[in-house]
Amino acid sequence: MVKNWREAGARQPLAKSLGDRPGGDILFGSTEGLRDTVMLRRPDIQPNPHQPRRIFNEGELWALARSMEQVGQLVPLLVKPDPKEPKRYIIVAGERRWRAADLVGIGRLMAHILPPDTNHDQIALIENLQRVDLSPVEEAEGIKRLVDTHGYSQETVGDLLGRSRTEINTTLTLLRLSSNIREECVQQHAPVSKAVLLELARMETHEQAVLWPLVKAGKMTAREARDHRTRIAEQN
Question: What is the average pLDDT across 54-83?
Answer without folding.
Answer: 88
